[in-house]
UniProtKB/TrEMBL annotation:
Residues 48-89 have a biased composition (Low complexity). The lineage of its organism: Bacteria, Pseudomonadati, Pseudomonadota, Alphaproteobacteria, Hyphomicrobiales. It comes from the Bacteria. InterPro entries: Extensin-like_C. This is Extensin family protein.
Amino acid sequence: MQAGPAEAARGAPSFPWDDLFGTRPHRSHKSARRSAVPLPRPRPAEAPPAVTEAPAAAHAPAGAEPAPPAAATQPPAAPAEAARPSETAKPAEPPKPQLSACRQALTEEIAIAPSIPDIHGAGACGGEDLVRLEAIVLPDKRKVAVKPAAILRCRMAAAVADWVRTDIAPLAQTLGGGISNLDNFDSFECRGRNRVVGAQLSEHGRANALDVRAFGLANGKSISLTDRSVARDLRETVLHSVCARFSTVLGPGSDWYHEDHIHLDLAERRSNYRICQWNVYDPLPHVAPLLPAERPEAAPPREVAAKSDGGKLDAAKADHGKADAAESDDAAASDGAAETKPQPTKKRRQSRRF
């Protein structure tokens, strides 16, 4: 039995040059396999019959339109992005800056010190975590006003508030009803030390210093920290309290720039070096001595003193007379010497003419 052309072509060996001139018979492609189409499963017996909706349509009045299917009556749900376009278009708010530990501790129960924006001025002036110290709240809820309000770093403001609450308030309570206000001479100011042009940046320029001139009492009096009429013990007590709390204390005696106020700051130095220069001078006398002191009892009587003074005058006159006599004798001796000098005679004068 002769094999078919497909079998002959499949059985014959193939070489790369067999179909060089196109004489090789064309191979037929394999027929595509037919895939089985899945059929739906048979309707379960528990399902209701398909003709259950026909009676409802039969009872409908003539000319009435059939009700649309339930799926057609409900509009398609819009996507979430299309339902709220305004929320997606609104940019997200930046996160709020986290408060520092000092800002969290400096509450309204300690001081009225609202936060202010950071300051970045020329020459490294300014700082971060700044507050405006308006008042200090005492433990008994009374407020000590800072006049005028001081712009300070939070750490410096907390140190001032703790100093007033712990040291100054009990001290002022013994003077006249307690402290009512704090006299702020200077706080933040972008300048050099002692306001000298070209000097090193002051701690005032970093909002890290406060100049205190006095504090007021509830009875209306004012206690100046550099007034020599104030009791020395009081001023020394304030001196010890500030030198124990602040790294720099400058007052009278430090230089000519701090004779009428006290400079306080929290400057950081190597090895925690601290400066406390404040001379507490003795108080001035209340009444200046205008009359000379009384004559002591051991002094000689005035008459004897007058006689002794007269004797001294006589001795002085005698000495003066002796001096005059000696001068006259010297003058006479000089005159005698002048008279004994030989004078040229007339004869000699005549002989000289020749």
